[in-house]
Fold this sequence. Notes:
This is Probable membrane transporter protein. It is found in: Cell membrane. The longest helix has 25 residues, at 38-62. This protein is mostly helical. It has helices spanning 2-20, 24-33, 38-62, 68-89, 94-111, 129-144, 149-159, 164-188, 194-217, 223-243. Helix 3 packs antiparallel against helix 8 (164-188). The protein has one domain: Up-down Bundle (Growth Hormone, Chain: A).
Amino acid sequence: MSFFIFIVIGFAGNFIGTLSGGGGLITLPTMLLYGLPVHSAIGANKVANTVSSLTSFLVIFKEKGVTLKEALSVLVTCLVGGAVGGIIASFMSGDSLTLIAIVLLTFAFVTSFLRKGNFVGEKMFKLNTKTGSILFGIGMYDGMFGPGSGTLQMYLYASQKVAYIRAVGLSRVGVFAGCFGSAITYISTGKIVWSLTIALMVGGIIGAQVGIKVARKMNVKYVNPLLRGITLLLIVQIIMSYYK
């Protein structure tokens, strides 16, 4: 029964995460409510997201929705940023990291109403000083704390007039980069409950693939409202965890 429940959790989280980021809104709280220890829950989420994000990216890449040059630029920038963020996090308190998350997500939410980016463009993502700095910062945030990093990436791609399906593919690369190192760490420290993690992974792969199919058919006018809704939920969840 537990195996089936975790498949459903993985499906729901990765379906939402593929469309707009923020899949952790579903997976982490549900696993904790189910009674999984916090480190095991985070580890399961990181391992499952590493695999599901890679498989969903490969589908989009195979269909030429994203170029190898774009993917590598995002991968390397997020990996380096995540490594730096992990180092910084070791010197910061949990409360400080939570406050940073609240500020960043609130800023992204407010500026989403001011920017004209809405995924209607067809531009390729170009790594320059501005976009590289922002992406590096998101990678750092992912390494320091994490929740909402995929959503923050989607806001960046929208501002660069990148088509929605391309943005989905690139955000999956960023999620893979952010989760890979963490997944290795959790595996090496023996925090993984493998039976439930594999169930989460199976559900995640299916959810990500269904998410891609929906993303292809999704009217872009609904994407920004979805992003804003996910962002608000993330902010509320993080504030609640802060005051607990």
